[in-house]
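User: As part of a screening pipeline, I want to sanity-check one entry by hand. Below is the sequence and the SMILES for S-adenosylmethionine. Please return the complex as structure tokens so I can compare it with the automated output.
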Amino acid sequence: MVDKALGTGGRKSDKDLKIRLKTARGRKTGSTKWLERQLNDPYVARARAEGYRSRAAFKIKEMDDKHKLFRKGMRIVDLGAAPGGWSQVAAKAIGSTDANPLIVGIDYLEMDPIPGVKLLMKDFTDDDAPAMLIEAMGGKKADLVMSDMAWPTTGHRPTDHMRIVQLIEVAAAFALDVLAPGGVFIAKVFQGGTEHELLHMLKRHFKSTHHAKPPSSRADSAEAYLIAKGFKGTNDTVPGEGEYDR
Ligand SMILES: C[S@@+](CC[C@H](N)C(=O)[O-])C[C@H]1O[C@@H](n2cnc3c(N)ncnc32)[C@H](O)[C@@H]1O
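Assistant: Here is the complex for your manual check:
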């Protein structure tokens, strides 16, 4: 049920225009709140109007505006690609087409095809996932590995923290394997959740690291992004870094 609350004078203020929902039978308060937020979110409306599959599209656009991530003809791996907003933005920005696809996306969720993007439906943490991604890239190095992956939360903060850090570590190890020198790695992290060790490792392998909280990332969410730029390449890898050595 959708209620549009009207102001008393008959004139609608922005606040009054907010769509409020009553909790329908069988729908939990949490889902009602989520739905209410979606219906009132300007980025959701913009995504729909501009043909993007997710509001997340604006996060990568905003990070690109600031950090100049995309350039024509580069190769990209999109980890946790569904429903496809980041890949849509990237394909357009770099000129990836079905005739010459430059992007490979992976998600364990099924996705509708995206022009210019090869999609794998697979869990990235499966042992054979990295090899499948490399094969899908035709064995070529990538210029950008971008990860928006996050496990569904359990509600148990230490567990959630551990799981996200682990996921970022696997993504980072993959990035070190497949990036060409000068390449960029972006990963969703959670504020206060970037492990010291991981950040330290990225600092050694990349010329610069940055934290980003794009305006479209909800202010009340702990979500943030880590951007590592200027991959130093295989010759510059530092001995003694265990699993990150190649
Ligand atoms: C926030 S969404 C990504 C949104 C996407 N960037 C976009 O613009 O539409 C996170 C995605 O990560 C995926 N994901 C999480 N863990 C994964 C894993 N281990 N392997 C593959 N996909 C994973 C989820 O299924 C989900 O679709």
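Points to compare against the pipeline: The first strand starts at residue 2 and ends at 4. Residues 1-16, 236-246 have pLDDT under 50 and may be disordered.
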